[in-house]
């Protein structure tokens, strides 16, 4: 006895809906959606940290603690970029980076600051990861919460041969 399976319109509709649902479960193809700057993978040449995004993240965090807003400063960004490049060139994040040291370095360059702090780190691929790591480390968090800070500079440098891959530097300052 031979049986034929009749496909009802309802079963075809359910099958089509299932297929459409499953096609949305995979990872998005490269280029299918823009990546928000907070989650941009910095492990590629030629990328720079999105400064408006960083300003929004840092200011929002600081406001949670009753602290002032901060805005990017091109000269502080350059200082951060130079330090990140130096660390990447050494493939090492060990540095003597006290508040006094960064304040003196900035003042020597003609950038007058009352107070400054500096975070260095490596291994984070995105601004979100770096920010999360800094919040979770008391000394780094103190830099994020630098009282009276008005400006910042941030940079990430890609070093493909390094075990860290990406080196980050944040300079937070209260200009005077």
Automatic annotation (TrEMBL):
Pfam families (UniProt xref): CAP
All residue ranges annotated as the SCP domain in the record: 60-171
Signal peptide segment: 1-16
Domain of life of the source: Bacteria
Name recorded for this polypeptide: SCP domain-containing protein
Keywords associated with the record: Signal
Origin species: Candidatus Raskinella chloraquaticus
Keyword Signal attributed: yes
């Amino acid at each position: 006895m031979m049986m034929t399976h009749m496909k009802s319109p309802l079963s075809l509709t359910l099958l089509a809906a299932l297929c459409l649902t499953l096609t949305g479960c995979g990872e998005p193809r490269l280029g299918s959606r823009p990546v928000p700057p907070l989650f941009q993978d910095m492990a590629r040449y030629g990328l720079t940290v999105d400064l408006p995004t960083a300003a929004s993240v840092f200011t929002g965090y600081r406001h949670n603690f009753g602290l002032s807003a901060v805005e990017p400063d091109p000269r502080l960004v350059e200082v951060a970029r130079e330090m990140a490049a130096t660390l990447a060139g050494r493939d090492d994040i060990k540095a003597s980076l006290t508040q006094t040291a960064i304040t003196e370095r900035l003042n020597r360059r003609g950038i007058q600051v009352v107070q400054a702090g500096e975070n260095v780190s490596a291994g984070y691929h995105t601004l979100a990861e770096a920010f999360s790591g800094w919040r979770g480390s008391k000394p780094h968090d103190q830099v994020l919460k630098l009282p009276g800070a008005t400006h910042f500079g941030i940079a990430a440098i890609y070093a493909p041969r390094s075990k860290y891959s990406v080196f980050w530097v944040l300079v937070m300052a209260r200009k005077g």
